[in-house]
Amino acid sequence: MAIVEATQFFVYVAGSDVSTRFASRLIKLTVTDTAGRNADTATIELDDTYGSIGMPQEKASVIVALGTSDGGVMQVFDGVVDDVNHIFDRGAGRRITVEAKSADTHGKQKEEQTIHNDDKSVQDAVKEAAQKAGVEMSFPSGLGNEKRKYIAQDHESFLHFAERMAREVGATFKMIGGKRGVFLDRNSGKTVGGGAVGNVTAQVGKNLITSRISPILSRPAFADVRARWYDVKKAKWMEEKVQIEGDGGGKSEDVAAHIRHSKFDAAEGKEHGKSAGKESSRDKGSGTVVIDGNPAARAEGICTVVGVRPGVDGAYIIDNAKHELARGSGYRTTLTLKRPGGEAGKDSRKAGKSSGGGKGTGGGGETQWPNEFD
Q1: Paired residues of 108 in beta bridges
Q2: Are residues 175 and 242 in the same domain?
Q3: Are 229 and 148 in contact (CB under 8 A)?
Q4: What is the predicted pLDDT for the residue at 218?
């Protein structure tokens, strides 16, 4: 264990605790936890003035844990070394940067495979592909376990195939430690076992440093999602319609989202429609907050914004959590937020009585909200 700027941090490389050795040399430590699409990353930038730091080997295991000096420590990254970069600058000296990823992008996980699955669930198809890639998979109960007539992994790597399947069943695919993979129920804030992924609060006057939030983005909000499939017996195209979950967010009751590619049957169309609905609901709003470092913040967890203002305060899904420990600025956590919930996007305040004179301000009449463009 080592302490930098009142922050505890642990770094293990290839099973060895290098925290104390890194403490005096650490320039910046960055961990990015993402909600699928890309692997989680850890970047460790060190002062290598005397060239004395041992260079870790490719694929060596890397574990990072963070916490405040007076609080608990939590693991924020588990992966493998992906790249080691050394920089020499006559003015700035020598630096070494170790980059790690939660997925092993140099092994079987990136190898293209061709596997055809008949009458299998998405869970079974992904598990088979994972086994060939040397990955152990875990799934939450009830997600992706409906059988499909046909599933093809056609010249796709395991990482690409698992990500595509996750998108079709409404899941977030994550790799852990280079050898384990999980599907999380997207937007649920739950782990594979059903516990909370990581709930944090961003509160004005307590831990919130900056915020920039759009609680309502009307452009991507649809009323429902529709998927087409061909009914061979009836010899005609059919359509599955799935209502978008949630409310608010500028949803238009007249606008539907259409899945581009046709599905095999009604079950597949409905499953993919539910997934697309989750994504549309997720995109109702977005924003970014920077808070005092908190290792509990995780992608797919919940961030509750408090004290900013009515209409902005509320619960949001964490789409991306970036933990940064720097020599000069200490430990900060930057959260990219999605899917506003609770009171976010709703300002239920009513006009009150006024005491002045004139329109909107006079005679104890009802106040009208001011319009600066009038």
Answers
A1: none
A2: no
A3: no
A4: 58
DSSP 13: E
Number of domains present in the structure of the chain: 3
3-state secondary structure of 276: helix
Which pLDDT tens digit goes with each residue over 139-163? 998 888 888 888 889 899 999 999 9
- 224-231/256-258 β-pairing: parallel
Encoded tokens for 131: 């086994």
Is residue 210 helix, strand or coil? strand
Which pLDDT tens digit goes with each residue over 343-365?
A: 777 777 765 544 444 444 444 45
Distance CA 1, CA 65 (A): 9
Look at the block and give the residue holding tokens 């608010």.
248
How far from the centroid of its chain's Cα atoms is residue 343's Cα? 22
State the residue range of the domain holding 35: 7-101
Domain CATH for 160:
3.55.50.10
Q: Is 134 found in the same domain as 172?
A: yes
- Which pLDDT belongs to residue 369? 46
Using a pLDDT cut of 70, give the percent of the chain over it: 79
Residue whose tokens read 């996980």: 109
pTM, two decimals, is 0.82
How many residues does this entry show for the chain? 374
